[in-house]
Design the sequence.
């Protein structure tokens, strides 16, 4: 079974630029999560999708972050414009149905904002 | 409130047992998880325990849950150098939907 795929693995941008991350979840998983992991901290949920609908985006900074999952499979997370404090690893995870089932994590995208 | 706390570092010698501790605040937690993160990789689920259990054993791993004190621990027997990683404690809380709250992680160093 293929795992959660993410790209790119690394990205370096200057502040005020835009950036987008891509995630392909495990086939058949209805729930997709984006987490932000700042160095030295645990992952913090940014947004959770159930199929192509948003379940929880309460911690997503909506003035600069956006995410979509148009066909209920792949997802993109965008930051526009980026700030220095957005430097972090962005983790994508998926689970079968988003109840109490296991979340499977991708390798993450490490973003550095200069 | 929702908060999960862990000590930041633990150093042990190869062959010894490691015990990583965690405290959480939400008494409505349903599941509690331990994840492992190796350098450059995502989180990998190690084990979990239901909130109505007080112990779970899985090969070298033993999870103890003290629900009264909201304390969770992970014991790794016969720790190996390959166990060096960051270990995250996480609780699942029901906020109208299920949400996973992670601790900051404990970095385990295993000395040969």
Sequence:
């Amino acid at each position: 079974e293929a795992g959660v795929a993410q790209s790119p693995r690394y990205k370096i941008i200057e502040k005020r630029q835009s950036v987008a991350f891509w995630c392909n979840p495990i086939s058949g998983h209805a729930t997709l999560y984006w987490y932000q992991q700042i160095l030295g901290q645990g992952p913090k949920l940014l947004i959770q999708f159930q199929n192509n609908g948003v379940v929880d985006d309460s911690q997503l900074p909506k003035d600069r972050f956006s995410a979509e999952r148009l066909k209920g499979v792949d997802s993109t997370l965008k930051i526009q414009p980026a700030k220095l404090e957005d430097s972090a690893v962005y983790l994508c995870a998926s689970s079968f149905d988003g109840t109490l089932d296991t979340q499977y994590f991708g390798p993450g995208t490490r973003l550095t904002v200069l | 409130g929702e908060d999960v706390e862990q000590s930041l570092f633990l150093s042990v010698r190869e062959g010894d047992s490691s015990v990583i501790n965690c405290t959480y605040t939400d008494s409505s937690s349903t599941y509690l998880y331990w994840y492992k993160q190796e350098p450059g990789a995502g989180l990998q689920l190690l084990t979990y325990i239901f909130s109505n259990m007080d112990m779970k054993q899985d090969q070298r791993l033993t999870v103890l849950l003290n629900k009264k004190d909201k304390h969770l621990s992970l014991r790794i027997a016969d720790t190996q150098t390959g166990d060096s990683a960051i270990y995250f404690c996480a609780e699942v809380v029901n906020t109208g939907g299920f949400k996973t709250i992670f601790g900051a992680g404990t970095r385990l160093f295993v000395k040969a």
